[in-house]
Amino acid sequence: AFYALGLAYQGQGRSDEAIAALRQAIELNPHYAGFHVALGSIHLNAGNVESAVAELQVAIARHRASPEAHYLLGLAYQRIGKSDLAIAAFREARSLDPTIAPGRPVPEQR
Question: What is the pTM of this model?
Answer without folding.
Answer: 0.89
